[in-house]
Amino acid sequence: MDNSICQVYEDEIQSLKEEIKLLTEKYEERQQESTFFSDEEILESIKSFQREFQGHESPSDLKAQLESLVTDLSFLIKFTGIQFTSHFKSTVEKTRDRIVQKHRLAGNCHSLSFQLEFQLLEMQNKENVSAVISDLSIIMESGEDSDVKKFVSSTEEHGNLLKFFRSLSSYAEWYEHRRRTFLHFK
């Protein structure tokens, strides 16, 4: 029994000696690597690293940039009448050169509310990125109008969101004018 206990301790001691030897070798390698660079080069590298992660913009620059973006957004809402109230995005599939995302948007255009659901397929070649919209579904408040139903079904079929938002903006603006005019005569 004493022999077996001694053997266990000797094995453990031998294992620890090997580990110390490996760690010593790694330490010596790192010491040699660090001697390749001068103190000035190391300090310059540290300063460069700090500049890269600190960025060049101060908080006041960021605040001014944010205010500019808010002003631009306010202008676009007034100009188009389109205001998004919610957006949900989930990634369905992601590979090295292909991403499929599902989007759900809700918003208002003047006094009309709308909801969109679609999948966006982005494919990347060596030089460019192409995007294709599929499975477009549009729900609009004024769905009882047959012209709007035709327009929505055509847009869903072709997946042309730019055409949809341009037409929605014009239609909603005139829809609001008609609504106010009919209220005036009531």
TrEMBL record:
Annotated keywords: Coiled coil
The organism's place on the tree of life at top rank: Eukaryota
GO cellular component: chromosome, centromeric region; nucleus
GO biological process: CENP-A containing chromatin assembly
Coiled coil, from the record: 6-33
Name listed for the protein in its UniProt record: CENPP protein
InterPro entries: CENP-P (IPR027801)
